[in-house]
Design brief:
heterodimer; A: mainly alpha; Cytochrome C Oxidase, Chain A; two-stranded antiparallel sheet; about 0% strand; B: 2 domains; 5-stranded mixed β-sheet; elongated
Chain lengths: ~650, ~350
């Protein structure tokens, strides 16, 4: 049975019905939760909040929800690949392509990005002694735009089909009717809307880190997590516009039948350049903050300052810099000839040097320390061997002549999951265990945490290690099946088992969250880990009025040094003049307008799109003329009232 | 009985996967060089991995909180120029060690050899491969025939989206991209049958866009070329005697030709010497039962294929058609033309 829906139709087959039922159940559950447990006014308050901590928590929650969705996609994919010539449910052909596309797109854009931006929101202002981000309103807008983009890509499955051209969305497959056009529109609009949010986040964090550090917090006194975040947001500012331009043209090709990327008149390879100029830096965008985070955590639980602080910072900058000149290594097989390939191979291999510096610095941070192993530390040290393995396969795939064999095979799939899951996802888990008290004032259960870590680590290696061999045995990426005589069954079967162990491990984490929240058995107030950096001078959870007076920073580890000297941290004598932004409903409304406009474009219904666009501009205009009503000045010299244009 | 056989067969597969990796089991010079480079870089990387792992586990164990080991002052430093320079310079040297053979091979792969070579035009389309032999003036599809020990230049084209031409045992892949012709140089070695694949996502049946590569001894190849070039495809308005040929003419001819010399009827894959092929569409065992199933419901085998379902054929017609297709062998086509 199928229902016509604008320019497409919704085919009501089992998996789509399953999708609708789960959406209804989840919706009902959420409604029940808000009504009986949370109260609507709490929700209303959080929806309008401009507070960095609350926004950070919302990023983490939403990112985690998308993580479950992306993980479910992965399990479907692994089920389909468990046996040769296997038919699992409907996931062959197009449906398989939809699953693997939404898995990739969701995990990169709606899991890795928001989880990291969430941690940045939670921790960066506390680490540099800022009261909030530079533009709290924009921060809220960023979050709601990300959520809108994520929602668009996720509902596509129920509204005529998800994108099915891979997260790379290569043209001409993704244009001109070679694949499901509605799905491709969902991809383009979803990423465009959330990308606007991400660019705004980048601007916000750059200004915050440049302008809002506490007195004495020089650049080289910033904790490495802040450094990693700083470099990341600079990368975002340069990389995301390339994606925005690329998907704008992609959308034009699909909706207005232009021919930028089509085979006849356009240049299919142009899309690959647009995409990879963005997407290669993107992998550094999602890994640099966790590099910083691991430095902080490893130093913390080794009871030693981080080894080679300066070379750590320089390595971050070098990785970011080199990250922009390697994108053609994703295009080694398009036939650009040996010279182009050689140049990009060398620049790619060079990235191993700063990465190696970081690895050895982490190791030598541990040397001579007194190592404790709470879950946050376990994830950090679990990361080191995992990431080194991903790193060495990275050098291997950089070697052009050999890469002709690895390229677009499962070897590459193994490689990038080692760096992305082993880096970003393990980092996010470490960060959540570490900063939990800063957000909620309690610690997560350590026993559950340790089981979570070990199951995750074992499941992870079982899943992704065999993929290297699948690739060497000739299994291309993005295939939904293989033949019995291909000799791929054993490896795939192990991989599927590993995926389910990882899935169970993530559920265990969920259980830990609920258990620790319910029992509150480890409520703490200040500094549970014997902290070294500024955020641990604040009570836990961080009070909504973060700093009465700003701290004065004299060295790189203000809390540790103060504890060593038996002194208290120094604070400024008076409250400095600063701006406070009230909550506002405009970000949510703007996100709604973006959603409406996108919806209209996706289904090419312009009587929906145009009001959406008008709504966007009307709200922006409204905000522009009323923004001073929403801010308030306080602190010294701040008594002049609410309409001060500073 | 049968299930225990199945289980043991699966176990055998499980073990086989470990040692028979096609990329590392080359059947030609290019793949051999590439596998050497892979193994070399793997060995170097293992040394690095070993160094990191040894340091990692040593530090973890020695400096755990409850270990009473002494922590001498030099372990307490926050930086150390000598050490940091060491782990900046050493990796650079290792990279240099890797870069030299890599660069040499990268250039040599793209350089045409002076020896006589063969050119084959490869055209990818959703979801099959066409192979044209311009010198021999024949064409085939889904099954690529090559002479042993020969340098071959593949000219890669596509009719629709991007595909990627990959024969793991003969060498690395290269993309077929709309609007440009890419050249891939490979060299065949020992005779045998190898798997070919499309490595770039090209749509719903990307998985099934496979082909077989048959490498012949020199004279065997010449024979094959001659047989494949025998004109046996019935004309559209010709009256044919044989029932199978008639069914073919009625149902298949619009898209498929039955010999490699045919220039018309090329919408679908060329079926030259179909009776000798191991696989249907490069993927599925070419036996009577499967071929019938494929003809009745091609979509079950290849999602979104352009080929319509032929479940309207009577049992007799189907038998005759399969008989005809499986009769397209060297012996028969040579005999027919004499």
């Amino acid at each position: 049975m199928s229902i016509p829906f604008f320019n497409t139709e919704i085919k009501l087959v089992s998996d789509v019905i399953f999708g609708y039922i789960s959406v209804l159940l989840l919706g009902a559950g959420a409604l029940w939760f808000v009504t009986y447990k949370l109260k609507w006014n709490v929700l209303w308050e959080w929806m309008r909040t401009t507070d960095h901590m609350k926004i950070g928590i919302m990023y983490l929650l939403a990112g985690f929800a998308f993580f479950l969705r992306g993980g479910l996609d992965a399990l479907f994919v692994r089920m389909q690949l468990a046996f040769p010539n296997w038919d699992f449910w409907v996931f062959q052909g197009e449906k398989y392509n939809q699953m693997m596309t939404t898995h990739g797109t969701t995990m990169i854009f709606f899991v890795a990005m928001p989880l990291l931006i969430g941690l940045m929101n939670v921790a960066v202002p506390l680490q540099i002694g800022a009261r909030d981000l530079a533009f709290p309103f924009v921060n809220s807008l960023s979050f709601w735009l990300f959520l809108t983009g994520g929602a668009l890509v996720n509902i596509s499955y129920l509204l005529g089909g998800s994108p099915e051209a891979g997260w790379t969305s290569y043209t001409p497959l993704a244009v001109g009717g070679y694949s499901n056009n509605t799905g491709n529109n969902f991809y383009a609009l979803g990423l465009q809307v959330s990308g606007i949010g991400t660019i705004l986040t980048a601007v916000n964090f750059i200004v915050t880190i440049v302008k809002k550090r506490a007195p004495g917090m020089t650049y080289f006194r910033m904790p490495l997590f802040t450094w990693g975040s700083f470099i990341t947001v600079i990368l975002i500012l340069f990389a995301f516009p390339a994606l925005a331009a690329g998907i704008l043209l992609l959308m034009f090709d699909n909706i207005f039948a232009t021919g930028f990327f089509t085979g006849e008149s356009g240049a299919p390879l142009l899309w690959q350049h647009f995409f990879w100029i963005f997407a290669h830096p993107e992998v550094y965008i999602i890994v640099l903050p966790v590099f910083g985070l691991f430095s902080d955590i490893i130093s913390h639980f080794s009871k030693k300052p981080v080894f080679g602080y300066y070379s750590m910072v320089i390595a971050l900058i070098l990785i970011a810099f080199l990250g922009f000149m390697v994108w053609v290594h994703h295009m080694f097989t398009v036939g650009y000839g040996p010279t182009v390939n050689a140049i990009f191979a060398i620049s790619t291999m060079l990235i191993a040097v700063p990465t190696g510096i970081k690895i050895f610095n982490w190791l030598f941070t541990m040397r001579g320390g007194r190592l404790r192993f709470p879950t946050a530390m376990l994830f950090s040290i679990g990361f080191i061997p995992t990431f080194v393995m991903g790193g060495v396969t990275g050098v291997m795939v950089a070697m052009v002549a050999a890469d002709y064999q690895y390229h677009d095979s499962y070897f590459v799939v193994g490689h990038f999951h080692y760096v992305m899951v082993g880096g970003t996802i393990m980092g996010v888990f470490a960060g959540i265990y570490y900063w939990m008290p800063k957000m909620f004032g309690f610690l997560l259960n350590e026993t559950l945490g340790k089981i979570h870590f070990w199951t995750f680590l074992i499941g992870f290696h079982l899943t992704f290690f065999p993929m290297h061999f699948m690739g060497l045995n000739g299994m291309p990426r993005r295939v939904y099946s293989y033949l019995p005589e291909d000799g791929l069954f054993g490896l795939n079967f192990i991989s599927t088992i590993g995926a389910f162990i990882m899935g169970g491990s993530v559920l265990l984490f969920l259980l830990n969250l609920m258990y620790s929240y319910k029992t509150q058995e480890r409520r703490i107030s200040g500094d549970p880990w014997q902290g070294r950096t500024l955020e641990w001078t604040l009570p836990s959870p961080a009070p909504s009025e973060r700093w009465e007076r700003l701290p004065i920073i004299k060295n790189r580890e203000p809390l540790w040094k103060a504890k060593q000297a038996g002194e208290n941290l120094m604070y400024a004598e008076k409250e400095e003049k600063h701006m406070e932004e009230h909550s506002s409903v405009i970000p949510v409304l703007l996100a709604g307008a973006f959603f409406t406009a996108s919806f209209g474009f996706i289904f090419e219904v312009f009587w929906i799109a145009v009001p959406g666009i008008i709504g966007i501009f009307a709200l922006l205009a409204y905000r522009s003329v009323t923004f001073d009503k929403n801010i308030e000045w306080s602190g010294e010299n701040g008594q002049e009232g609410g309409n001060h244009h500073g | 009985m049968k299930s225990s056989w199945k289980v043991s067969w699966l176990l055998v597969c499980l073990f086989l996967t470990g040692c028979q990796m096609s990329v590392l089991n080359p059947a030609g010079r290019v793949a051999e060089e590439q596998s050497r480079l892979i193994i070399f870089s793997f060995a170097v990387m293992m040394i690095i991995l070993l160094v990191v792992f040894v340091l990692f586990f040593r530090f973890l164990w020695r400096y755990r909180e409850d270990s009473r080991i002494e922590r001498p002052p030099h372990t307490q430093e926050n930086d150390n120029k000598k050490l940091e320079i060491t782990w900046t310079v050493l990796p650079l040297l290792v990279l240099l060690l890797l870069a030299v053979p890599m660069l040499m091979q990268t250039y040599s792969l793209e350089t045409k050899t002076t020896q006589e070579e063969m050119t084959i035009e490869v055209t990818g389309q959703q979801y099959w491969w066409r192979f044209d032999y311009p010198d021999e003036n024949i064409r085939t599809a889904q099954e690529l025939h090559l002479p042993a020990n020969t340098n071959i230049t593949f000219e890669l084209n596509t009719e629709d989206v991007i595909h990627s031409f990959w024969i793991p045992q003969l060498g690395g892949k290269k993309d077929a991209i709309p609007g440009r012709t890419n050249e891939l140089h490979l060299e065949t070695g020992r005779p045998g049958v190898y798997e070919g694949k499309c490595a770039e996502l090209c749509g719903a049946a990307h998985t099934d866009m496979r082909f077989q590569v048959v490498v012949h001894e020199e004279d065997d190849f010449t024979e094959w070329v001659e047989a494949a070039g025998q004109d046996v495809t019935p004309e559209e308005n010709e009256t044919v005697q044989e029932e199978g040929a008639r069914v073919f003419q009625e149902n298949c001819l619009a898209c498929h030709a039955a010999d490699g010399a045919a220039t018309k009827n090329d919408q679908g894959p060329n079926l030259a010497l179909y009776g000798e092929r191991d696989k249907i569409s490069g993927s599925f065992a070419n036996d009577e039962e499967q071929l019938k199933a494929f003809l009745r419901h091609p979509n079950d085998f290849k999602p979104s294929t352009d080929m319509p379902a032929y479940n309207n054929l009577s049992r007799e017609e189907m038998d005759a058609l399969v008989n005809y297709l499986h009769g397209l062998t060297r012996e028969n086509v040579q005999g027919g033309s004499d």
